Bcr/CflA family efflux transporter (Labrys okinawensis), 428 residues
Amino acid sequence: MPRPVAGTALEPAVRREPQPSFAEFVLVIALMMGLSSLSIDNLLPAFSAVRSEFGIADANRMQLIITAYMAGFAIMQLAWGPISDSIGRRKVLMIGLGIYTAGTLLAIFAPSYEVLLAARAIQGLGAGSARVLSIAIVRDRYEGREMARVMSLTLMIFIIVPVIAPATGSAFLMLGDWRTIFMSMLGLVLVVVFWFGLRMPETLHPEYRRPLSLPAVASGMRRVVTTRASFANMLAMGLAMGCLMTYLGSSQQIFETDIYKLGPLFPLAFALIAICMGLASFANSRLVKRLGMHRLSRFGMVGFWLMAMVLLGLAVLFQGRPPLIYFGIVMGVAHFLLSLTMPNFNALAMEPVGDIAGTASSFIGCVTTLMGAVIGAVIGEAYDGTIFPLACGYLGLSSLCMLVLVWSSEREAAAAAPAATPALVAGE
């Protein structure tokens, strides 16, 4: 009897997993992360239209559109990672994107502001899967400085989304109403579903599959908290996220309506600052292998703290309303420096816990996102028509972040971290 040949009737062909190139891998991960960013930033120009349609008297209440999304985004992250550690990354991502799609459809047909907020929370619940799994997948394949490099390249592409998001949101408002923006979100999530489904293999190492149980999840979270490097960099990341969410929540009022009254030029001002962040991520991808994650993240945070001091000085000097050129330059430099910290904080927090990447990414993502959402909401509610709340928030948060970094010295973090786990590098 002849030996069976693969692909003949005697032996079915073995399905080969797709193997995306490095560039395609980065693009897919960036698109997954970009889904959450687009879901925030392209709605900013629509605040006035939503407020008018639903008769919202208090302009500060419009920030709940972001807060509701971020709350759902944070809470569900606790579940996505542990589930993916048990059944794999691909299945969990598809479930999460299905929930995001349901929330998007509800938002398109929302009859009231309260239903719109509920839809945004549902969107956030689903989008949390893309955030958690994008980081877990990167950690499955890379480690150390190479992981930081991939995260920087991913964030560089990811930040392009905020550059164009307010402009595209404005364009959709010209083509229709604010509901048209949600239709664009529906189109993007379908692209992610099909591209990921066709081209990305399962990346969870078989030996790292964990039982889906509360004790196993609690054990993973406890390990993050008791590993000094992971815990300290998680807190630092959360404080940095608080700075970013503070800016996102008040940017529309600062640039478009209250202080600088830029109107339709608001997307341009927003894009210029986002470009600075993208340039920082590109620079970080080039520098991190030479200088290291610790050094770059510390340099970025000290620089951001100094720029926060300058921003507060401008607020005092100009009664909370400095000239646009001064404010724009300081914000551009500050956010450039802030973007040197976040990918490195993330990589440093994930580095010691690669064997529980899903659970660790969930817990770290939940904590940092909740910190960002709560901090952004509190400082956003304090907005008073000046940049004082923003400047004070930046200075206070960056000061706390530096205290956390001092508490966790590099030597202590290295001593506390367990041995690095092997990573499946692309092409191996």
The domain at 22-200+215-414 is CATH 1.20.1250.20 (Growth Hormone; Chain: A;).
